[in-house]
Amino acid sequence: MMEGNRQTTTTPDSLRVLLIEPDGETARRIEDSLSNSRFRAAATHCHRVDSLEAMHVLDMEQFDVVLTASVLPDACGLEVLVFMQGTVPDMPVIMTGVEADAAMAVDAIRGGATEFILLTGHEGTTVPLAVEKAFVHRQLCDENESLQEDLGRSMADLAVLNQKLEKSIRQLEVTARTDELTGLSNRRWLNLMLEGRWAEAQRHELSMAFLMLDLDDFKQLNDQLGHQRGDELLRIVGEVIQTNCREIDVAARYGGDEFCILMPHTDVDAAMNVARRISDVFDSRMAELDLGSVRVGLSIGVGHRDLSGPRTAEDLVRHADEAMYAAKASVEGQGCVFIRARGGSMCSAAA
To answer: Coil, strand or helix: which one is 12?
Structure first.
């Protein structure tokens, strides 16, 4: 098991114990208790030193448990605890002592020792059990830390996946409501927005305009110059419309060479001004193109809730459509803007 840059030596068949014990007889009893323990199926390898100074030359990362006497020739067990916390903080440390050292037990536990064992002659039972307990505790801590790291990585990966998913959903939503050629809204999205905006206008008595736009002689352009030039022209119309709309307006490709603009919170004069501006900008863009003998115009019809008196959203669209066909049929020629008044009468923007 890897933990940071250190590989833990805790494996199912081996356990390495560092024994810090200056008394030879006590060390022998402890080593015998570990080697003869019936509590562990795994082998226990014990390495003994007799002082804190002797520990300094050891690679502490090779051990799994430290078993230290409470009193050493050059230090006390509490100093061993401090040393271990500065070198291998997660190393379990068990402290041993005789009855006279019992007062140190509380300080040892508070200082981070996993256990304090009084050496009363029963080391054959108490020491192996304490080492077993420390070993299992360390394994659980290591596994828990590893699980926490895995969980952290999984959560981070999940967050990245969620971000990608949200981005994909947003892209799909945009794609589902956008006309691929012009970048404007498609008819499906227009109908959804029209329904909501109409209900809002009816509820609060708000002004609303609807513009219908249609290219004149578009079929002639396709026939003479090809569909690629036709697509180019449709994209130009989309750009002109989008540039001259507000953020709250819904500009859409209605179908073929027909376009429309839903304009909530818009009075009659503002709607007509937008229509005229779009017509003028479109004419300027057409003058820059080499279309040969083809002269393409843009007829615009305007329906308005306050002027044409529609009873439904469908009526508003129909009124704009009728005004647009009146503009196409006008003796004024291509590029006209007409608005439908109450009763079905039509009025030119130039009037």
So the answer is: coil
The pairing of beta strand 208-216 with beta strand 346-348:
unpaired
Residue 257: active-site member: yes
Residues 6+ apart with CB under 8 A from 119: 26, 96, 97, 98
Separation of alpha carbons 316 and 309, rounded Å: 8
pTM: 0.57
Amino acid letter, 39: F
Give the span between the Cα atoms of 89 and 2, in whole angstroms. Answer: 15
Active-site option among 257, 269, 280, 283? 257
Separation of alpha carbons 305 and 191, rounded Å: 17
* Domains of the chain from N-terminus onward: 2-148 (3.40.50.2300), 187-348 (3.30.70.270)
Q: Tens digit of pLDDT for each residue in 50-77?
A: 999 998 899 998 998 999 999 999 999 9
Residue 251, strand partner residues? 261
At 274, list the tokens. 């937008």
d(CA 328, CA 326): 5
Residue whose structure tokens are 């939503």? 173
